[in-house]
């Protein structure tokens, strides 16, 4: 079973690349954004709990997010592996994921980070915002704040996964097919 963590700053192309990778490697794509939307839309207990935090303007606690991810993994017992997109987001979540996977005799095979310059990413998101009309993709200050949060919470995962020998950085700039090729080269060599 191949379990891969895909991460990078907002706008780095995780969602785009995840679509190609899940097909190529027959992985179940677990996007925390999709998992949150599903649980809230379907009014699950976890969805109601998450909504209560979000409605109050608070972050959803790690335990709730982790439980949603665990439920999603458990809902796919026949999976050949998972592509985690947006999770883990911090060290606490990474440790929880490792403990859960270990309890199932699984592990994270690799973490792959799509890396790109902030200015390039800001422009990508602003362009995406013109199409999506998502308010958080139209405001440059909001976008830049997301990078501050990423640098404070998610960037420390680099050291965590490097220590395990599982970290791989991939240049996230270029044509989509070129980036897919770079990601595939990493995964093919696991």
TrEMBL record:
It is an enzyme of class 2 (transferase). GO terms for molecular function: AMP kinase activity; ATP binding. Its main location: cytoplasm. It is found in: Cytoplasm. InterPro entries: Adenylat/UMP-CMP_kin (IPR000850), Adenylat_kinase_CS (IPR033690), P-loop_NTPase (IPR027417). AMP binds at residues 32, 37, 58-60, 86-89, 93, 134, 146. Consists of three domains, a large central CORE domain and two small peripheral domains, NMPbind and LID, which undergo movements during catalysis. The LID domain closes over the site of phosphoryl transfer upon ATP binding. Assembling and dissambling the active center during each catalytic cycle provides an effective means to prevent ATP hydrolysis. This is Adenylate kinase. It comes from Flavobacterium silvaticum. The gene is adk.
